[in-house]
Design a protein that fits this description.
This protein is an alpha+beta fold and 87 residues long. It has one domain (2-10, 19-73): Dimeric alpha+beta barrel (Alpha-Beta Plaits, 2-Layer Sandwich), CATH 3.30.70. It is 26% helix and 25% strand. The chain has helices at residues 17-20, 23-31, 50-59; strands at residues 2-8, 35-38, 43-46, 67-73. It is globular, with a radius of gyration of 15 Å.
Length: 87
Amino acid sequence: MRYLFLIRVAEDASPSPEQADPEAWVEETTRRGQRLLGERLRSDIEAADDEEALAIAAAHPAASFGAVEVRAFWPFEEETEGEEVAS
């Protein structure tokens, strides 16, 4: 199942440079095949279930000084030739 992570940090948060650096988390979740896409606006994660998704979110560096909102989502199925995806 896919999950969308929204990382929120208060404007007045002052994490150390080590806390704010997500590189180790990005490398680990990419190596495991969990991190599918990561942009400043969103981070798409593949996890077996809610429990695993929450564990991945808890390991994100921003979880120690901000919030990681976790939302399950299902992508639209690919359009087949001549068919439109219902909205």
